[in-house]
């Protein structure tokens, strides 16, 4: 209890420091009662036919703009979470492609920080793109009522270890009663191995790959000098835990939203599957 109270005080200070208190008000204006399809970038997406006939709303993530599917589905939402997209040259190129290829009305959802906001305003100049800054702050305290209050009012989210965490939470805040997940295999553990020099490698295929994917050192993928195996598994665990946190939030707060995983072979076990 003492630790939780201490963490609660820290959480309040972090939220106040964030200076983005009105994202809930902007999100409320985007509310919809249609079906939302969230498209991950897993290779299974190649086996799904998406013809946007206006019956569903689409949300895409990360590097989806690199695919031909992007202009086909004309997503209503595009979600980014990884700092890589705002601080690395390759990530900034993705932002530029989004800016150039989007010729329909779309909302680009990005985690709020003053530094990120400055970068976005310099890069995204397309009048078709509406910018929505969401709060990705994760809470340290374990008071359930505090967490759920902050989730409801978009002051915080479960740990955004993967962009899908932010995407589902935004879908809930947009008032969708049905959210379907495609291309979210999350089967990276099948493609991990350690070489004779104790370098951890990962083969990470995506649906938009034009050539056969080869395994790369995880530290290169993450642009860091070292990325040990235990840290990889620890981050994976935090990610899957966030999905269970979302499931509990939906259940405990009686939110009228059903999340269905439509990805065959997906390792995500928190949501019902229909494949």
Blueprint (SSEs and pairs):
Layout: H1 2-18, H2 23-28, E1 35-39, E2 56-61, H3 69-73, E3 77-79, H4 84-87, H5 89-101, E4 106-111, H6 114-123, E5 129-134, H7 144-152, H8 163-173, E6 178-182, E7 192-194, E8 200-202, E9 216-217, H9 218-221, H10 229-252, E10 258-261, E11 272-273
Description:
The chain has 275 residues and is of the alpha/beta class. It has a single domain, classed as Alpha-Beta Complex (sialyltransferase cstii, chain A). The protein contains ten helices and eleven strands. The strands form two sheets. It has an eight-stranded parallel sheet with strand order 5-4-3-2-1-6-10-11. A hairpin with a 5-residue loop joins strand 7 (192-194) and strand 8 (200-202). It is globular and about 50 Å long. It starts with a helix and ends with a strand.
Indicate the CATH architecture.
Alpha-Beta Complex
| CATH structural fold name | sialyltransferase cstii, chain A
Sheet with the most strands: spatial strand order: 5-4-3-2-1-6-10-11
Query: Shape, please?
Result: globular
Query: Helical element count?
Result: 10
In short:
The protein is an alpha/beta fold and 275 residues long. The protein has helices at residues 2-18, 23-28, 69-73, 84-87, 89-101, 114-123, 144-152, 163-173, 218-221, 229-252, and strands at residues 35-39, 56-61, 77-79, 106-111, 129-134, 178-182, 192-194, 200-202, 216-217, 258-261, 272-273. The protein has a single domain (2-265), classed as sialyltransferase cstii, chain A (Alpha-Beta Complex).
């Amino acid at each position: 209890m003492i630790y939780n109270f201490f963490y609660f005080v820290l959480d309040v200070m972090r939220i106040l420091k964030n200076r983005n208190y009105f994202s809930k008000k902007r999100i409320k204006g985007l509310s919809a009662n249609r079906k939302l399809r969230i498209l991950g970038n897993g290779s299974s997406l190649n086996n799904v036919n998406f013809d946007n006939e206006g019956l569903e709303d689409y949300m895409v993530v990360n590097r989806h703009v690199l695919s031909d599917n992007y202009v086909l589905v004309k997503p209503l939402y595009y979600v980014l979470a990884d700092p890589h997209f705002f601080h690395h040259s390759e990530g900034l190129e993705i932002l530029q492609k989004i800016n150039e290829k989007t010729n329909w009305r779309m909302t680009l959802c990005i985690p709020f920080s003053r530094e990120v906001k400055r970068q976005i305003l310099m890069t995204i100049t397309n009048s078709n793109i509406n910018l929505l800054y969401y709060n990705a702050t994760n809470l340290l305290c374990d008071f359930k009522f505090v967490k759920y209050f902050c989730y409801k009012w978009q002051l915080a989210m479960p740990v955004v270890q993967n962009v899908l965490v932010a995407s589902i939470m935004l879908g809930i805040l947009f008032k969708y009663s049905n959210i379907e997940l495609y291309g979210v295999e999350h089967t990276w553990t099948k493609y991990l191995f350690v070489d004779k020099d104790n370098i951890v490698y990962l083969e990470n295929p995506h649906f938009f790959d034009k050539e056969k994917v080869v395994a790369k050192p995880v530290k290169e993928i993450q642009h860091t000098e070292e990325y040990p195996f235990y840290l990889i598994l620890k981050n994976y665990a935090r990610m899957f835990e966030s999905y269970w946190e979302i499931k509990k939030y939906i259940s405990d707060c009686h939110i009228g939203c059903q999340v269905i995983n439509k990805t065959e072979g997906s390792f995500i076990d928190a949501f019902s599957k229909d494949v």
